[in-house]
Amino acid sequence: MREYILVMLIAAGITYLSSGLFRRVAVRIGAVAVPRSRDVHVEPVPYFGGLAMLSGVGIAFFIASRLPFLSSHTVVTRDSMGVFLAALIICIVGAIDDLIDLPVIAKVFGQVVAAGVAVLHGVRLYWISLPGSIYALNTPTSILVTVIFIFVIINAINLVDGLDGLSSGVVGIGASAMFLYTYSLAFERSLSVCTTSSLITVVVMGVCLGFLPHNFHKAKMFMGDSGSMLLGLLLACSTISFTGQIDSSLLATDKAGIWMPFMLPLAVMFVPLMDLVLSYIRRTLRGRWWFEADKEHLHHQLLSRGHSMVGTVVVMYLWTALFAYGVVGIALLRQWWLAVMLVGVAVLLFLVTIRNGRREISDKSIGKISLPSATHS
């Protein structure tokens, strides 16, 4: 655990310190989010938070490769190198988009290339493990399914990045829950295959913690597509390292543990995935492309019900924590009272979510009550 804590603190510290540097670079070269009619902010805000995160990821991985325990797992060193190369590609694509607004096809191409690089370095779904059966994937199918999965998660995180601190907080909470579970498997049951996922998730926790002080309301800088796509890629790779490379029968003799390779990723990414699915359905029914932006995401709906910007972010944090830590808690503790308590918390949180409150909007903070962009906060 000491090595993981050290890696997390390094990722957080480098991200926090380098954010100021990249903020100045963004201002100097004009990589700023200029307010539009659909945006929350009323003044230009610098991008390039993703580049600061990439710095934290790179140095954290390098330090991890020099630590006694983590460096002893060759698969971890190999996978982390592949993940970092993929992260480098996706971050560069996102930074260019933040600067000149790339066409959709160019962003999609960059996402696929980044996913392909991760696959070439062993980050791949080799099989789909469900209770009672394992579905082995041949090489072409494995590559295709992995690339599609990474592509979907990248765009899910990209869509949820709509308010100050929302994406980094949601991803950080989800990653922390996955780390708790994968670390327990790696430590208590000596399942070394979980070590890669533990490393990636603890690094994600670190970069999210390091960036939040710069990004929480009112944000001094935005992560931009360079950051949201980076977080999506890292979360997808950590999930693949756990879900697609472990036999569920090794986890537990009860149903809660056996279902974890399938349930944990869904729980960790519940909020972004639900937002993605609802967006796809909504836009398809209206005869629009799935990538066309609108102002009806989950955070938009919460704002329209009277939640403040900070309140909206906190509500989505709580839903993420409820699902992610709820599933992990049930798998680790296996207590009926925990399930009852989670249902009670879910009911209370649902009532808070749907409440209609007095909209508190000031011209200084939100402008002409325009709602935020889904990809630039």
Itemize the secondary structure elements and their pairings.
Elements: H1 2-29, E1 32-33, E2 45-46, H2 49-64, H3 68-71, H4 74-100, H5 104-120, E3 127-130, E4 133-136, H6 139-160, H7 166-188, H8 195-215, H9 224-243, H10 255-258, H11 260-268, H12 270-285, H13 298-304, H14 309-333, H15 336-354, H16 363-366
Antiparallel strand pairs: 1-2, 3-4
Helix pairs in contact: 1-2, 1-8, 2-4, 2-8, 2-9, 4-5, 4-8, 4-9, 5-6, 6-9, 6-12, 7-8, 7-9, 7-11, 7-14, 8-9, 11-14, 14-15
Describe this structure in words.
This protein has 377 residues and is mostly helical. The protein has one domain (2-366). Helix content is 69%, strand content 3%. The strands form two sheets. A two-stranded antiparallel ribbon has the order 1-2. Strands 3-4 form a two-stranded antiparallel sheet. Strand 3 and strand 4 (133-136) form a beta hairpin. The protein is globular and about 50 Å long. The two termini are 33 Å apart. Residues 359-377 have low confidence and may be disordered.
The total count of strands amounts to 4
Largest sheet: 2 strands, antiparallel
| Unreliable spans | 359-377
- H/E topology pattern: HEEHHHHEEHHHHHHHHHHH
Biggest β-sheet: strands ordered side by side in the sheet: 1-2
Shape descriptor reads: globular
Q: What's the Cα radius of gyration?
A: 20 Å
Average pLDDT metric:
82
* Tally of helical runs: 16
Tell me what portion of residues adopts beta-strand conformation: under 5%
| Proportion of residues in helical segments | 55-70%
How would you classify the helix and strand content by structural class? mainly alpha
Span of the ends, CA to CA: 33 Å
Number of domains: 1
